[in-house]
Amino acid sequence: MRNIISFMHISLDGYVAGPNREMDWIKADEEIFDYVAQRIGESDTALYGRVTYEMMESYWPTVADKPNASKHDIKHSEWYKDVHKIVLSGTFESQHSNKTTIINHNFVDRINEIKQQSGKDILLFGSPSATHSLIQQNLIDGFWLFVNPIILGQGIPLFVGIKTKIDLKLLSTQQFTNGVTELNYIIEK
């Protein structure tokens, strides 16, 4: 069975974006990019909500073609083009490539079907609304969190609508020189 792992940058007080969806507080640098590239290279499926997918789709397919593309841009663009993408959306109908699956109804059943297929971990990138829905339906299997050294005080929280406690097992941690700490958890079931 495949696992869905939620990959998020998060503030120390639990927010994944500011009150206006801003993410300018996230600290990302080459050290983090290199670390993340290793892990995402081990996955074969990316899961997005519609808003995050549209943001990714407008940037990653062509960024490597730009003359000032960084090593990270080139590497992630190649991965993005190759990975299978799943988009959760009640309104999004179009499909940009044969490597994209749109789930716009019966998402619990469809996600469970995908989890039963052979393959590697499914990484849920950002997508707070999709993450909230999947947590509430017990479809998330782990959290890969990058805790940024900032307290936002308000914004979009990672954890909302949780009705029962969720026990986690810490698999690994990594500290980065910019002050970010990675926490890799699996949900104990």
UniProtKB/TrEMBL annotation:
Cite the Bacterial bifunctional deaminase-reductase C-terminal domain residue spans from the record: 3-180
InterPro entries on file: DHFR-like_dom_sf (IPR024072), RibDG_C (IPR002734), Riboflavin_Biosynth_HTPR (IPR050765)
Q: Which GO terms describe its molecular function?
A: 5-amino-6-(5-phosphoribosylamino)uracil reductase activity
Give the GO terms filed under biological process for this record. Answer: riboflavin biosynthetic process
Q: Which domain of life is it from?
A: Bacteria
Q: Which SUPFAM superfamilies match?
A: Dihydrofolate reductase-like
Name by which UniProt lists this protein: Dihydrofolate reductase
